[in-house]
Amino acid sequence: MNQVTATELKEWMAVSKDFLLVDIREDIEREAYHIGGEHIPMGELISRLDEMPKDKDIVLYCEKGIRSVIAIQRLETFGFNNLFNLSGGMTAWKQSH
Fold this sequence. Notes:
Layout: E1 2-4, H1 6-14, E2 19-23, H2 27-32, E3 38-39, E4 57-61, H3 67-76, E5 83-86, H4 89-95
Parallel strand pairs: 1-5, 2-3, 2-4, 4-5
């Protein structure tokens, strides 16, 4: 599984790399803190597959990087091979500042 660290993701953002950022956390988590991107809660991923392109990188993130690993495993069964997990999730992101 592809991983991207918080530092690497910040570099991607700084150079405007073409990728889709997807927050898979629940509404209340996103309201408390987020780093942008599309908000597709984990429970809605399969019903919203058409919102995720297969022709560019997609970074999924959650709070600790555990749910996003599970989400990536599920999405890979639908033919996605362009997925990256934000290693450590929002916890790692906050610590990297």
